Amino acid sequence: MANRTPGITEKLTEQAMQEFLANGYTNASLRTIAENAGTSPRAVYTRYGDKEGLFSALVAEQAEALKAMFRRYMSDYHERPVDEQKQLFHDEHYQTEYRGYIQTSIDYIYDNLDVFRLLICGSEGTKYASFVDEIVEIEEHYTLLYIEHTGSDVISSGRAKPQLVHLLCSSFVHGFFEFVRHDMPKDEAFTYIYQLQDFFACGWDHLFSP
Predict the structure, then answer these.
(1) Domain check: are 117 and 200 in the same one?
(2) Would 54 be classed as within a structural domain?
């Protein structure tokens, strides 16, 4: 096995981050990344297998961590007693808890902002292009569980079809990540997300309790 030149891996990931941020995955050049790292494309293939392997090395850990945060929060709420769940939009403790969850999520995104810029804005052409939609699936799954678990008639009554549940979950989650797309300052992102959540909470509350 050939010896690896010390420091090349670090240089490759640094240059890859810059190249992917500047050009997105599809238009990024492995040759440019390798040259700027002072090596050859072969070093990329040796370490990462291919271009997508290099991209994955930059984003995989943080992508899975944020999905786990969303999933854990939704799961924890689902485990609450049914009577507590029914107070979804009328529980001050829940609102405090929700804001803490939002703060943790946004803090994590800003601590890894370049990674999330890649995931949200530069991942087309990779398996991570579905990153946001995978979070939509988590949101939708637990929303439907909430409806079932609390005995809500929101679907059975015809006030909402499953397609509307999907559309609303998708709209909220895609909207959530707009602060990354628009390079919002962190304090502005918090305000935006709280306003977004308040808007959707009113809509859901109207559907659940007409």
Answers:
(1) yes
(2) no
Quick one: the chain helix, strand, coil %, rounded to 5?
A: 75, 0, 25
Q: Which residues contact 195 (CB under 8 A, 6 or more apart)?
A: none
- Regarding whether 161 and 90 lie in a shared domain, the answer is yes
pTM of the predicted protein model: 0.91
Residues 9 and 70 in one domain: no
> Are residues 111 and 158 both part of a single domain?
yes
Looking at residue 3, what is its pLDDT?
47
Quick one: average pLDDT of 174-202?
96
Same domain, 32 and 72: no
Q: How far apart are CA 185 and CA 172, in angstroms?
A: 20
Cα–Cα distance measured from residue 177 to residue 120, given in angstroms and rounded to the nearest whole number: 8
Residue pair 169/205 in contact (Cβ under 8 Å)? The answer is no
Judge contact between 145 and 82, C-beta under 8 A: no
Which residues fall within 8 angstroms of residue 165, CB to CB, at 6 or more apart? 140, 143, 144, 147, 155
Are residues 109 and 82 part of one domain? yes
Residue 179 gets which letter from DSSP?
H
* Residue 99 vs residue 126, higher pLDDT: 126
CA dist., res. 130 & res. 177, Å (int)? 13
Residue 12 lies in domain = 1-49
